[in-house]
Amino acid sequence: MKESYLLKALLEASHSPNSKILESFLKAVSSTIPSKMCTLWKVNNLANTLSILAREDYKPPPEKEYEFVYPIQGSLTGYLMEQMTPNKPYFKIDSIYDEPYWSLHKSQERVKKLGLKKMLCISIPNSEQSSDTDAILNIYPNDDFDFSDDCIDIIRDHFSLALSRTRFIEREEVTRTIIQIYEQKSSKDLASILHPIINRVLKKYCKYEGCSVFLWDPFSNLLSLTQTTGIKYQPKKNEVYYYLGEGLTGGIAQKKEHLIIKNLANIDDTNLDKNYEHKWLEDTEHVGKSFMGIPIMSPSRPNELLGVIRFTNRLNFRAPVVDFFCNKDFTLVKHVCNLIALYMEYEQSERVRTAFAKQMAHEMMAPAAAIRGSAERLIRKWNSPNFPIAKVYDYLNSILDHAELQVALTRTIQYMWKGSTSVPRIHRYQVDRYDLKENIIQPCKKLVIPFTRRESLTFNNIVIVGRFPKMFVDKYAFEQVFFNLLTNAIKYRDKQNMDSFYISIKSLGYDSYSIPVNDGYESKKGYLIIVEDNGVGIEPDEKDKIFLLGYRKKGIEKTNVRGLGLGLTVVKQILEDFWCHIWISNLKKPTRFEIFLPDRLRNDSYLKTDEWQME
Length: 615
Known about the structure:
The chain is an alpha+beta fold. The protein has helices spanning 2-13, 21-32, 76-83, 101-104, 108-114, 149-184, 190-205, 247-255, 270-275, 327-381, 389-419, 425-428, 436-447, 449-454, 475-491, 567-577, 610-614; strands at residues 35-44, 49-56, 69-71, 90-93, 119-125, 133-141, 208-217, 222-228, 241-243, 259-261, 291-297, 305-315, 322-323, 431-435, 462-465, 470-474, 503-517, 520-533, 581-586, 591-598.
């Protein structure tokens, strides 16, 4: 009979609002099963803690932190959980005063005050992953009452479904609210969208003290602060940033993996502890303790980072007590990240376009200004009777050199665009037979004359060594390959030792070479060209990134080195279109790029293949 009353009470309680469902279920239990107190605890398997979800018939003061969150290990509930089995997912105690129960109980004062004696501890399964324990229900019944197995099964099933329902409705509500925020905002910049999300919306479902969102800036190669609940000492927004791999936030961005930490002052993972640098702290009431950080990934390009969202100090919903982040928090925030990513991707595309235009203007301005200066001087002195003809020749040569440089810079953009389209290679390239040295590399060397003059470098320190083949390629495309390698070597030279500047382009001739392919090597016949310079070099952690679109050397924004981060992407793309390979064989002193040109480029038969004509 009592089973039917319990079932009816739980069914009626299930109509409660989502925010009140757990309290309603506890009332349903205590109304049908006479008890002195009921508590529902969330099991956090990541932190190995129990956190109060709902409580009936007792309201402790917030200063008693153990009444809201405590470690599973060494507790009475933790001990009882160990005694449970799949066939018996509960444990009954006739007297809490018996050992070992009494010494393990966290609140002996409460036991005496409320006159508690019997206890029933019930494991509530996760309805989505039945092998996991989602929560623990502790019931302190009246002395004269006992539970049947049927009662326990009813309780387990209904509480499990209620917890699942809570998670589902939370995701639905947060989605609807974020969409409304976006629709209502007259200014749809990312910061204005994020402000109510991290200050109000998320706190309703995952209570915390501090939250910050960082946007990945591929041009500056850093994470910049976009929105926050508050940073300690109130720095200027543009002062708050992290480089890739720097601190926990930069580490999350680098690994593209979420991170949950129980105690920032005692990080268990030795790798994190060794590299930990939390240079910007959220402004929180409590000292920073629990932490969660999640990478925000692009919806259209799942392996591309857009930003990082991080949280400091999870709070218990029942009191202002520091709690711990769990998988439920991660799942909810990850869902929110997917929504934020849609706005982030739009904002970042706008920002990248603006930055691209700005950088391109800088790149194009230098040769254009030089052309204008030479032309103005020529016009000004043209009619002077003492103006020597040799000077006319010098000015015209300067104009021609800078015009050629401007054309080369424009072609970088052109080939970047060509590579991003689905147009077959036959329509992207104009192939003919060229001497690699005479028709391509030597003209490239001439193209960088304005660079060397501007930087006061010795032009003769760019040397071309060895016998180069004649191959069927696109002249201007392969000019781009060597032009970008040369300009990079000039830009990233060792400015502390100007005399050390040199660039070498050397051909090793025709042979069978071991080529790095994926995780191994393949032996192929063809030509190997080595491009070396004695500049600042490449860091080990940058080796796999320098060919990525928009990537620039770490810390480069602090220098006057201009660039778009496109050059090496264009180089790799062109070479791969012609079945060539490029890789870095030495990082510093010298920095060495190796380029393999396959045997098939010695004749034009590949132009008739489906690969060339269709792909």
